[in-house]
Inverse folding.
């Protein structure tokens, strides 16, 4: 116990510690805490209270139910269904790049979406749209993916499974170009739409009616103020403004006719890759059918393999995404109707003006002193204007349009250029060379009606020789039969035909006839819009008679139907195909019944002859209309 | 051998006020633990899984330990100080080998129902060994040799805890040593030399001794918004909670930050944020007031102490509690890096509570026995 004794003695020192230093330390440290507490809880309380509020309270958009689209008999053409998507909330993502990437790698396994792509999407969004907020990184998840994601979200902070409405299209592929489809907004679209209450992740109509009537279909989004906890789970809804559902659109399209025509075109197109048909009410401009082949299933845009399918469509040489009824091609002989109207109206011809077309090849000495050799498809003999329309004589229409010096025919104007200008004037009055104004998004082409002025203007620059800018005698001649640089869309040709059929009303075609609200109350009835064309009723009658004879005993007899008189005009337009060979487009445009026209039918096939291929299809459509739809 | 029994007069010197203050802090803690651990409005569940019940049981056990220790002459502890020190070092080494790893650091032995945290007890060991050493060497640190020896003794536990890694507790070891050095009267010259030496050492520690996450946490204090979801998340949410509490708080169980789980570890490291949010500035003042009273009672013991060893024990304990509470609250207020220190007596945690009440037992012993060792 020596050690113990020693330690006990050693331990007994008089305490002489300086305790004041401890008191000073205590006072300083407590003062630091106190000052900081006063700073936080009393002076800056407001800032922190606001942050606490922002922490737990989020404002979300409540998307409105999108309006539906119905055909003329009230059949729904679209439905709203549910789709799953994966979203990322930026404020919940780790800031550390590596940690983020690890998260993306986990997502890659579930979503089949490369991590690098997710990373790019997020960076893009942060740079261009917002530093916070929620971004949908993958849409249209399959059921398994959605399940997997839901199970994993507790581990993947910031990632959520979202359910959103999507469109399901019910009418079949024949409606794909009319209805269009929905897609994510681009930054530019969003810049404009965010002021209207759109969320960035909301889908918008991309083409067709979905795009044209976006504002009507979309409705007014509501708002919800929700309290959430730290894990983002909703605790309670504090305030809510209910969304206003979108309005419904009723179309003049007849679903059965539309599908029937798609089948007819498919069966009758032969070697043609592209086919289009327009059926329009001759008096109101309501579109009963607007078909374009090839078409596509617009439901693929809300399917899991959207990108793959989209790539396929884009790479298809026949461009199925294009609405061919709104895309231009040389109208060929259907344009002769315009030339006839111009000649009649300018007093250069009457119904009885006759020329002798006595050989297949005619030597034309042009006003420019050169000799041109022009051909016709048949020896017509002595024919008047009505017969020239019925038999679609090229030579006759050359004589009308560009004139024939040897026979002292001046053409439509005083000289070659004047003739072209006059013809283009009438073509424009018939609605050619500009958009019809149909209620489908911008994919509509204006086509082209050339003039000497246009040729000079458009063919300047180093790529064109001076001779290419010149307007030649032949330019006017070819223009007179709808060749050369003339192009028109099937819809324009239909509108032109309607103007002839209805005694001179140039109609604005439309697909939607009325708009109703979610309860079915009428909101808007779309009116018939038309302008008058400067062609007299008498002259239009001459043209109609030519078209009647074309079906009765002329070039369009294959369009003839039993028991009722109809009228039509075929067209076979030559064009230089991409392989350099000369090929032909097939056209038919006509109306029925002849006596009191109700519908206009226009058919276009990219390859084939109008009289052989387009006429029978038109006949079948008229037959269907007259027997099945007339009373409705 | 030692005075194992006390005379009635000695029992009368037992500091009841000190115990009452400590128990008030524990009770305060129990309320906050309840608020932090349950959904708002939920009643107390009588289950050993309930952190409130567990803390209550630990408190009762710790109280018993305190009473036993206060009956014991603190010289018995000083007598075995070397042994206690040795065992502590052994446990800390053992912990590195077989300890329980949580959140990247190894701090506990898992004893089934209870996780033993040796670093808590190491604080008392260090206080004991330093008090013993200084007392053995004449009661002060005027000699450089003693000063260096005391530093040498502090390094092993400091190092072993630092590599767990547990930066907070390591800092407490340093403050205990510094506190004792100052109070025990090291010469000004020695202090300046040592201070300069440590300043020169800092760059090396920064480069070789500090983990990335510790640097990150320090930089987060400087700019908490920089990394809101990683190391910055907790301090940001804690500050929002406390700041939004205002003068009167949002009411017990009414704090959105607490009840909607924006605060993490709301029963332990961030329990002060629960207090700040729900009971406000007044609640915080009440807590700080209780701590002030507690420190005063322990310093009173230091004042009363009959000998150097007793005084240094009380001083070490004051330093330990003072810095622990300061660092914990400072972390909550966003003016100190996140270090993972519990708030003394208030935070849930058995080892911490037991250590604190053992310390109070030692303080009681110093008070009770001070007359026996009075050196006049």
């Amino acid at each position: 116990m020596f050690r113990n004794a020693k330690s006990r003695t050693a331990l007994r020192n008089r305490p002489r510690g300086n305790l004041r230093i401890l008191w000073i330390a205590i006072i300083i440290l407590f003062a630091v805490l106190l000052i900081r507490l006063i700073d936080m809880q009393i002076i800056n309380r407001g800032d922190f209270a606001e942050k606490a509020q922002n922490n737990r309270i989020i404002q979300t958009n409540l998307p409105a139910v999108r309006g539906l689209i119905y055909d003329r008999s009230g059949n729904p053409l679209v439905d709203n269904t549910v789709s799953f998507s994966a979203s990322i909330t930026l404020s919940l993502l780790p800031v550390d790049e590596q940690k983020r990437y690890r998260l993306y790698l986990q997502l890659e396994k579930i979503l089949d979406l490369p991590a690098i792509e997710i990373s790019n999407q997020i960076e893009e969004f942060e740079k261009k749209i917002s530093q916070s907020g929620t971004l949908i990184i993958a849409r249209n998840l399959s059921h398994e993916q959605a399940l997997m994601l839901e199970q994993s979200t507790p581990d993947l902070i910031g990632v959520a499974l979202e359910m959103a409405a999507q469109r399901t299209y019910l009418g079949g592929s024949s409606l794909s170009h009319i209805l269009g489809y929905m897609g994510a907004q681009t930054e530019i679209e969003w810049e404009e739409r965010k002021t209207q209450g759109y969320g960035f992740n909301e889908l918008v109509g991309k083409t067709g009616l979905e795009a044209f009537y976006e504002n009507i279909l979309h409705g007014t989004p509501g708002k919800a103020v929700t309290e959430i906890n730290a894990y983002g789970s909703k605790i309670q809804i504090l305030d809510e403004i209910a969304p206003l559902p979108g309005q419904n659109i009723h179309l003049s399209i007849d679903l059965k006719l539309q599908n029937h025509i798609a089948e007819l075109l498919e069966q009758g197109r032969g070697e043609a890759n592209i086919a289009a048909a327009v059926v329009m009410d001759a008096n109101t401009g309501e579109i009963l059918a607007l078909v374009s082949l090839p078409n596509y299933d617009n439901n693929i845009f809300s399917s899991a393999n959207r990108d793959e399918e989209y790539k396929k469509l884009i790479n298809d040489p026949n461009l199925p995404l294009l609405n061919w009824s709104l895309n231009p091609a040389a109208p060929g002989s259907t344009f002769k109707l315009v030339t006839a109207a111009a000649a009649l109206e300018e007093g250069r011809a009457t119904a009885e003006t006759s020329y002798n077309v006595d050989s297949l090849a005619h030597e034309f000495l042009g006003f420019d002193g050169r000799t041109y050799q022009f051909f016709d498809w048949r020896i017509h003999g002595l024919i008047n204007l009505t017969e020239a329309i019925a038999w679609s004589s090229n030579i006759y229409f050359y004589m009308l349009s560009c004139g024939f010096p040897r026979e002292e025919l001046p053409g439509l104007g005083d000289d070659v250029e004047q003739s072209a200008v006059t013809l283009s004037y009438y073509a424009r009055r018939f609605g050619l060379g500009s958009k019809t104004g149909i209620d489908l998004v911008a994919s509509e082409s204006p086509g082209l009606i050339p003039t000497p002025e246009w040729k000079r203007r458009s063919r300047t620059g180093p790529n064109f020789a001076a001779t290419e800018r010149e307007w030649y005698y032949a330019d006017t001649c070819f223009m007179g039969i709808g060749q050369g640089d003339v192009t028109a869309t099937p819809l324009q040709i239909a509108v032109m035909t309607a103007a002839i059929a209805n005694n001179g009303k140039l109609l604005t075609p439309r697909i939607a006839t009325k708009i109703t609200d979610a309860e079915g109350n009428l909101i808007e009835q779309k009116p018939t819009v038309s302008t008058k064309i400067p062609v007299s009723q008498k002259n239009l009658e001459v043209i109609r008679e030519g078209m009647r004879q074309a079906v009765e005993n002329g070039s369009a007899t294959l369009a003839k139907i039993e028991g009722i008189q109809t009228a039509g005009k075929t067209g076979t337009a030559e064009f230089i195909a991409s392989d350099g060979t000369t090929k032909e487009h097939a056209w038919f445009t006509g109306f029925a019944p002849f006596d009191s026209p109700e519908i206009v039918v226009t058919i276009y096939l990219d390859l084939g002859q109008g009289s052989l291929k387009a006429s029978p299809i038109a006949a079948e459509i008229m037959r269907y209309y007259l027997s099945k739809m007339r009373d409705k | 051998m030692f005075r194992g029994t006390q005379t009635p007069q000695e029992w009368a010197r037992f500091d009841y006020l000190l115990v009452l203050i400590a128990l008030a802090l524990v009770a305060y803690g129990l309320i906050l633990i309840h608020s932090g651990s349950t959904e708002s409005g939920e009643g107390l569940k009588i289950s050993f899984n309930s952190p409130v019940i567990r803390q209550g049981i630990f408190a009762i056990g710790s109280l018993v330990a305190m009473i036993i220790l206060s009956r014991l002459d603190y010289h018995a502890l000083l007598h075995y100080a070397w042994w206690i020190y040795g065992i502590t070092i052994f446990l800390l080494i053992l912990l590195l080998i077989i300890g329980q790893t949580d959140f990247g650091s190894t701090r506990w032995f898992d004893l089934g129902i209870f996780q033993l945290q040796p670093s808590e007890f190491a604080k008392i060991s260090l206080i004991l060994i330093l008090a013993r050493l200084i007392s053995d060497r004449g009661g002060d640190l005027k000699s450089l040799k003693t000063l260096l020896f005391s530093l040498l003794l502090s390094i092993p536990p400091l190092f072993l805890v630092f590599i767990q890694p547990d930066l907070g507790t390591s800092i407490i070891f340093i403050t205990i040593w510094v506190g004792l050095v100052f109070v025990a009267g090291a010469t000004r010259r020695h202090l300046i030399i040592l201070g300069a030496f440590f300043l020169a050492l800092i760059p090396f520690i920064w480069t070789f001794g500090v983990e990335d996450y510790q640097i990150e946490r320090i930089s987060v204090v400087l700019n908490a918004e920089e990394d809101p979801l990683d190391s910055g998340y907790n301090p940001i949410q804690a500050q929002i909670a406390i700041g939004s509490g205002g003068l009167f708080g949002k009411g017990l169980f009414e704090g959105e930050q607490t009840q909607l789980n924006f605060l993490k570890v709301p029963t332990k490291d961030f329990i002060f944020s629960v207090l700040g949010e729900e009971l406000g500035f007044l609640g915080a003042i009440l807590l700080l007031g209780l701590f002030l009273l507690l420190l005063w009672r322990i310093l009173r013991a230091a004042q009363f102490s009959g000998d150097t060893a007793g005084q240094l024990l009380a001083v070490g304990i004051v330093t330990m509690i003072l810095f622990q509470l300061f660092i914990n609250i400072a972390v909550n207020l966003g003016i100190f890096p996140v270090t993972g220190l519990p708030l003394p007596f208030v935070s849930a945690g058995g080892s911490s509570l037991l250590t604190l009440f053992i310390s109070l037992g030692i303080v009681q012993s110093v008070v009770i026995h001070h007359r026996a060792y009075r050196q006049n």
